[in-house]
Recover the amino acids of this structure.
């Protein structure tokens, strides 16, 4: 019976489950250690204006400089950070590093917006907006130089606190982008009520070109109803870049235009190519 099964499940020692639990605890311990020892760094990937092909925005992507494992990518640690709540602390560090780099760029005479990925847990903190405002001020940046990337489910299913945070940061001039668009369950009715500046079409859709051009066209048509600008993610070839421009993408991002790299490398690139944004505030 189910009852017996249930009882058996509780009584039987599952080494596999225990091992998993144990390694999660170990990972949590090393994450905490990594945070306290400042082992997290931020790389930046350019987002290009489709018309001028100049850098418009730089996306901050966190990396873990692990003492033994080397450079660890976010898919390896973000899920546990979100589950444990450590993402609030990590996210704060990422925002600070991103704004610090923005300040440094401006001093070197370059202008670019910075975009930062934000998790649900961060936006559920009632004073998230106050933190953003304080950090902008501390680094001499104005709101319009910062963009926050959120997933579509986060925006659509958000409660009062999240909605308030979004309203408050938008009042500072901060722009909002929906990340990985086309991979979640889109409630277009709800989504169209939200004020969104950019929609980033997910790499999995973009990489399906040219076969799914019709699908992307339909998605773009819906995005235009929301008055959001279109960004295409995951562009790896010139052909796909051209197809996305043809389909109406305003901005392009992907390995073809540049991989995520350390801040110094971005500065070198900006020295060579310049960038397309007008100066905002200094
Ligand atoms: P995302 O925000 O959608 O970022 C795009 C990911 O796709 C990045 O992976 C980037 O390196 C990769 N990518 C960009 N262009 C291409 C391309 O042309 N081809 C391919 N194959 N990949 C490309 P990354 O850096 O490993 O980040 C993965 C995800 O981790 C991000 O997806 C984002 O959701 C999350 N993440 C990264 N940094 C942060 C952070 O500071 N906070 C939070 N909450 N999440 C973060
Ligand atoms: Mg992103
Ligand atoms: Mg994305
Ligand atoms: Mg993506």
């Amino acid at each position: 019976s189910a009852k017996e099964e249930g009882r058996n499940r509780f009584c039987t020692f599952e080494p596999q489950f225990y091992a998993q639990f144990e390694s999660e605890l170990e990972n949590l311990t090393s994450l905490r250690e990594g945070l306290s020892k400042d082992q997290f760094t931020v790389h930046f990937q350019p987002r290009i204006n489709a018309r001028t092909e100049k850098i418009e925005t730089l996306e901050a992507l966190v990396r873990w400089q692990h003492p033994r494992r080397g450079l660890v990518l976010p898919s390896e640690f973000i899920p546990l950070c979100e589950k444990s709540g450590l993402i609030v602390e990590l996210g704060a560090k990422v925002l600070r590093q991103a704004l610090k780099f923005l300040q440094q760029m401006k001093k070197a005479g370059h202008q670019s917006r910075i975009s930062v990925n934000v998790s649900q847990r961060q936006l559920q903190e009632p004073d998230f907006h106050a933190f953003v405002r304080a950090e902008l001020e501390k680094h001499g940046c104005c709101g319009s130089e910062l963009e926050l990337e959120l997933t579509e489910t986060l925006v659509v299913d958000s409660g009062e606190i999240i909605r308030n945070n979004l309203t408050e940061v938008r009042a500072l001039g901060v722009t909002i982008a929906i990340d990985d668009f086309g991979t979640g369950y889109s409630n277009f009715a709800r989504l169209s009520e939200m004020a969104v500046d950019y929609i980033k079409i997910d790499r999995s859709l973009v990489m399906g070109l040219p076969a799914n051009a019709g699908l992307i066209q339909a998605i773009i048509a819906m995005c235009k109803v929301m008055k959001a600008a279109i960004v295409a993610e995951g562009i790896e070839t010139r052909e796909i870049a051209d197809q996305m421009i043809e389909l109406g993408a305003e901005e392009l991002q992907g390995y073809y235009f540049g991989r995520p790299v350390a801040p110094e490398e971005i500065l070198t690139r900006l020295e060579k190519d310049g960038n397309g944004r007008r100066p905002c505030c200094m």
Summary: The radius of gyration is 21 Å. The mean pLDDT is 90. The pocket of magnesium ion (ligand 3) is lined by residues 179-180, 200, 233 (CB under 6 Å).
